[in-house]
Write the structure tokens for this entry.
Amino acid sequence: MRLPFTAGVFPLIILLMTGCKPNTTDRINNAASITSTSRLPENPLEMTPMAVSLQPDAKTMSTLYGNGIATKRLRDGADYATGSVLYLVTWKGKADPDWFGARIPDRVTTIERISFDQNGQKSYAFFKGPAWYADTDMKEEERRGIILSIPIATSP
Amino acid sequence: MKLKFKIIGCMLSLVLLAQLIRPEEISSVKTKPVKRLAGVPEEVAKVLETSCFDCHSSQTRWRWFDRLTPVNFLVASHIRDGRKALDFSQWDSLATPQRNAMLYFALNGILSKEMPLSSYTALHPAAKLDQKEIDLLRNYLLNNVVSKPASVESNSNGADKPFMMEVKKSPNGIAYLPNYRNWKAISTTERFDNGTIRIIFGNPIAVEAIHEGKTNPWPDGTIFAKTAWKQQQGKDGSVYAGQFVQVEFMIKDVKRYAGTKGWGWARWKGENLLPYGKTVKFDSECISCHRPERDNDYVFTRPLDIRDLNKK
């Protein structure tokens, strides 16, 4: 009678102990990660971050990414050469749960892509993210202008 | 019967004798009253004074039970460590941005439920903060101490900057790592407490660890670089990265950095990349602020998962 009882209590204790360990998986910001590319040609998060911006009214935050050719601008301030690909990923911001005073990315609202094709053509494409809201006004000409004029975040 | 009395007598005299051994903090009456914190509303100053000053300033009110050996040794060690982490006695000598940083640091200590120490509030219930007092601090900071972006339009685009500058080592011997701008962004943060905008870069080992979910602890070889820029208001109302402030590193090597929680800590400031820190042990400041994350290997950032979406 006693043995099964002790045998039963031990796993219970172990279960309780392991159950209280901090959960590591929820430290990854999955909500803000780009996890599927149904229509994206590539994952912008894999590219090199070049600039950041905040839109206080919309409470969003954006990062400008570039491919290898585009990031030449980071080093020497050169214009974007043919073959450059830029992405502007915009997230809804949220309060950092670990630091009062900080805001961090929540879900993606929009992803925009500009590529510098042969003979000076620039193509613009736009993708809705999970936090897209319908009344966002995305005028292509205006958006191109904004994306191309974001000041690069320079560091020594 | 008699033996029992003898034992009790012996124990009593031991306890009394022990009272002769006391930490120097008590004997050398170092406690001098600190002035009311200047430049903040009286209620805010009052809350911090009541709940924090015993351990975080030179103004310690020793209660009779705090003076008993061995309790007094515990109290003295709290004061020593507490003042090392945060010392309100320095308030008057600090400039406004440093004072503001101190207030945010203090509030985050409270919000992370680390402070005030629970062993202390058990005996000093008045020091416990209720929600009203926490909201008072929070609202004061939100309404008065939020950094606004500068409104000059930046026109530098990285051209004509000095090339190949010689960067000095950090006081703890860590050498500068110039290549972090090729790493991936594992997060970005907007800091309204000090008016900066940041990118947190992770090296390839860090990105791989995130992808495999092995981030607690982070593997040896992981490196984070965090850059901060001043916020700058653009003409269109957006805020951009303006002047470069600093870059900070955390380098994981359990053996090499065993004395500093398994991480090498270093910071370089300004366009000239001047190493930060006056002494070899400057990194205790980094560790003390990162301490609430000790169950997360001292890392604050909740990283993005960066996948190669074309694979599979």
